[in-house]
Task: structure prediction
Amino acid sequence: MKKYIVTVLLLTIGFVHAQDDGVGKYTIKNLEVNTENSDFGTSFHGTDKLVFASPRRGFRVVRDVWEQNGQRFLDLYEGIIEDGGEVRNALRLKGEVNSKYHEADAVFTKDGKTVYFTRDNYYNKRLGIDNSGWTNLAMFKATVNDKGEWINIIPMPFNNVEYSVGHPALSDDEKTLYFTSDMPGGEGDTDLWKVQVNQSGFGNPENLGSKINSPAKDWFPYVDGDVLYFASDRWGGKGGMDVYATRIEGFTPKPALLNAPINSAADDYAFIINKETRKGYFSSNREGGKGDDDIYSLTEEEPITFECIQLVMGEVRDKNTTDLLPGSEVILSDKDGTILQTAVVKDDATFSFEVNCETEYKLEGKKIGYTPQSKSFTTSNEADKELKLLILLGKGDIDFIADADQQATQDQREDIKPEGLPDVLPEEIVRLAPGKYAVNINPIYFELNSSYLNKAAKDELEKVVKLMNEYPKMVIEAGSHTDSRGIPGYNMWLSDRRAKSTVDYIIGRGIAPNRITGKGFGETQLVNGCTDDVECTEAQHEKNRRTEFVIVRM
Result:
């Protein structure tokens, strides 16, 4: 899909019938309303009208053309939906909606009187420009009057010239507005967010989290009951953008790829479907279309069914005092003892794992100074069931030793190596602390306020790639850190960005994504005393702006 809207990250055949390893079964058709240019991003206006984006039509003048693709700026059009899904009498929308810049992607309330839509950040005849000279996207709300005109257009309170906000979608009860943004605090390039719609306005935007969002681009949400459809160019798709589905009520399963012919090797996105008729539309720039991007009608012949998944969850407590035991390790294994997932519980001492239905598992809890405890269980055939387990650890033979003369012995006892780590360490692996081993490379340092990987950093990352290729079962975690300058929330966000850029680089060098994770720690793990109230040199602060590669298992 081309970048049709001026923004850093966003917006940039007959019948077909097929099914593969995704979910759902569909029939699609290319629409007659498509042109040689880009037509995309549909939305229902009531039950009989379709709104979509397309370059402005008519006589072309130089100032009316977007230089990025030689086409005119996008406007919103509305047409009548025919019984077969075709759209006729498509006319440019009336009222204040279409400006001299881009407009696209709208969603209407059920009464058709309120609409949310995407536009270049243009309001009150002023075009918003960020610090790098770009115009990002913004989201607006409008009222539709009796003449069909969009009036009283107002910007969303969480718009910002420094990042994009757009692609709105509404929940069935219209109390939650979903949208796309690259605002700080996300999981990847662009994320799906939600905000509560109330009588006084809107709540604070909330990220949908890592169960739905990925390090890649996630956008174009659409809500159908408790199912959320969206597009993503994440790893594991068919190529370009692909349409995924997940649930947003109750337990959230892993997003599932929709079957062909919805998804193809090209960009497929902007999926919508009528709740009653199970007919809808999506957009694609696949081969065989009429233009850059085309609108396709779709009919759902078989509904999507998600993989039968359950959630095992619980907490770790002291067997005698019932106190929570943060820092405990919880290990999920299959019936043969193969480790599937591990977690170190935080202050609330809680854990949770996704598990398959009708499967045997073993859950083990560990903590230094306590006797490990394991539990075996078998899941039922009930999808989305939550299974709660309590792990109680009792004091074992290893007790806390306060005597400094015995500390070496204590360190030796606490030095629990990651599974599979050889007794004699190769020179590429170093012991950082009892029970903590890492890849032995020079520190990856970042410039102040930056997550950019320079040449020196990439040279060190190549050593990580080489080691992971030598040990094909090695799993590592990239932990990124900042210095203490800046507010803690910003530092946590920045360190997450650094971790993600590091992980993306290593995955891009051919390492499987399930072998490396990234986590930002902000300023919570300084290696020296350079806190907010301590005066330090730039070199001292730099030592805190680092990324470490801790070995999870071999």
In short: The radius of gyration is 27 Å. The CA atoms of residues 140 and 156 lie 6 Å apart. The first strand starts at residue 15 and ends at 18.
